[in-house]
Amino acid sequence: MISVALLICSSFLSALAQTQPYKHLPNNLPSHYGVIGVDALDHREGVILVRVFPDGPAESAGLQPGDRIIAIDGYRISTTDALSQYVQSVHPGSRAQVTFQRNGEQAKRSVEVTDVGHLYGFMRDEEPTFFPAARRHTQWTDSSSQIENIVLNWAQTYGATPALDSLREALHRETERYGANARLSDIHYLLNNPLKTAQATDHIAAELKRALTIGDHLNIAGHHLDLETQKLKTASQPTTLTVDQLLELLTHTAAQVDSAFVHLTSTDRQMLVDSIPFLMAHFAKHGRLDRGKRSEYEACLSTLLLAKKVDLQPLLLAAAQLEQLVAILSKSSTLYYPKEQFQTPNGLSGPLLYARETPLGWILIGSNKANFYGRDDILCIIELGGDDVYAMAPPSSERPSVRLYIDYGGNDHYLGESGSAVGGIEFVVDYEGNDLYTGDSITQGFSFCGIGLLWDSSGNDQYISKHLAQGAAFFGAGLLIDDAGSDFYALGHKGQGLGGMLGWGLLADRSGEDLYLADHHAPSTYGVEREFAGWAQGVGFGFRGQGSGGIGILYDRQGNDRYQAGEFSQGLGYFFALGVLYDQAGDDIYRGRRYTQGASAHQAIGILFDAQGNDRYRAKTAAAQGAGWDASIGLLRDDEGDDEYRAGHLSQGAAAMNSWGLLVDRQGRDRYEALSGQGLGGSVKYWGGRRAQNVGGLVDIGDQPDRYNQVGRRDGHTTYSLGVSLFLDR
């Protein structure tokens, strides 16, 4: 009877505790940028924790995924917005009393509130990072674009200059409060100077237009990675080579690669190279590092910490040396090899002209007949012609750190990895033929702690892969360059010009009517049925919380092209990164979903620039066509042609959560349809605000009549509203 009474009493007290009244949150809470390290979802009673950051304050206090928070410091928490607003109102260093339920039992925990920069400890630098003003940055500062002048004149006319200044200051504070770990200077500059985005786009576009050789592209990659490029100029090279000279040059290049890893032990280097595929597989599956098992997270973080010790400068110098070798071997007649007996190695078939095993790997010279190459320990292949098959295994510490494949002709098939550099340098150069490139992952111009290059000079080619391919880079440069032909690029997700941490990822196509596809493979980031993720076609990506992103570019010089991609694509920046899709000419079609076509999120810059042609832009859901979210910059710029724009919410020059969003059309008869946007500065309450407004603008400065579907938008009209919202058609 006593135990029953105690049980009844306990149940009564528990029910009483769960039904006790809580205070309502006050209005206009201050924002001190406090965080406790959780992600949550709304619940009918409180919010459910779906993620608890490893080593964060919530985890240290004992909170777990699945816990339902109902109150903090006696204030009722009924939505995730309420949770965010209250936590941000608490001074970092203070503690908050969290009331939650777990397995039907109510409990309380005292949780320390910290600053976001301390929560993301990996981002913090041991010493402040100094960003020297590069020559290009000085040029951007000293010049002004038409877009910049229009915005500044508009702001002065309507008294919005203080709003612009407050937003610039807010973005500046963001660059400081997170620390500058692995941040590139271009990204740092643009976040502090958002109206210089047009100058940056013009500068990068001009560089890529002039880039005709591998050396040109290495120079561009180097200076945007903040590396010294003057040293890339090498002494004159011979016009012909013997096999011995070839081996000597390759040996020298391998030694240069080794010097990039001088700060790692041999064990660390082997561990780094072998762990990169696991990290990339985790990234491909989750999109971020703090999901999944704790052991997986710690393994991925360890890989990043090792990668930070790699010196990228020697890797760039090694790539320049290899480029000189490619220049010498641009014609098959420049290589002399002995006419001697040899035994064809296992894993190969077809007639060979020469085979030699070296300490670095095999040197092979193929005939103009069909050959098959299926070994992992190949240092160099010079293939004279024929329809060849290359079966390439995934990168590992067991294979040569330098690899060079040159194919002079034939319709070839590259299976698996091609032009992929993990902890080294790899060049694949194919001069002629309609070629097929197929692979799963980490292929087709990919790099991680290396320089990976796939260069195809001619032919109607096909590039097919699942993810992390077609010009993608982390800690180095990943380049896919196609000079001619109408080509097909099919990717599941994550690639086609993706720049990750300290990465320059480039897909450059110089001519032809091309199709770019990155859709219908990965499920939606938001769990939306019949929606898909893309993360492709000019994406700069950072591991949110773990490190700043890099620069990802898709550059198409000419042709009537078609782009189709899922969420987060087509000129997209994410977390201290820069993503650019630049199309120079042609009547193009762009189809995207959410966060697409010159969009950005979380302290980043996303740009879509189409220079010429009658183009059609379609975005299925929200945040598109010049849209910025959470201290970011989104720009869609179209210079010429009669264009059509269709999008969902927060689109066509729209911004929210202290961001810039601009759509600028400079010429033509244009049509705009959006569910909301068209020059809209939206809400700032999501993160509690940064004491700054938004700037959303739609600027059409052509002299042809245009059509709009939003109320208050019409041809030859200008409007301004607080927010800050700019609509200008002249």
Describe the structure.
The protein contains 14 helices and 51 strands. Among the domains are: 20-119, Pdz3 Domain, CATH 2.30.42.10; 166-233 and 486-730, no CATH class. Strand 50 (718-721) and strand 51 form a beta hairpin. It has a 24-stranded mixed β-sheet that branches. Strands 11-14-16-18-21-23-25-28-33-37-40-43-46-49 form a 14-stranded mixed β-sheet. It is of the alpha/beta class and 730 residues long. The model is unreliable at 1-18 (pLDDT under 50).
Total helix count? 14
> How confident overall, as mean pLDDT?
91
Low-confidence runs: 1-18
Give the amount of beta strand, in percent: 25-35%
Structural class by secondary-structure content: alpha/beta
The first-to-last residue Cα distance is 86 Å
> What general form does the structure show?
globular
- Percent of residues in helices comes to 10-25%
What is the β-strand count?
A: 51
Largest sheet, in brief, is: 24 strands, mixed
Alpha carbon gyration radius: 27 Å
Give the oligomeric state of the chains in this entry, treating copies of one chain as homo and distinct chains as hetero.
single chain
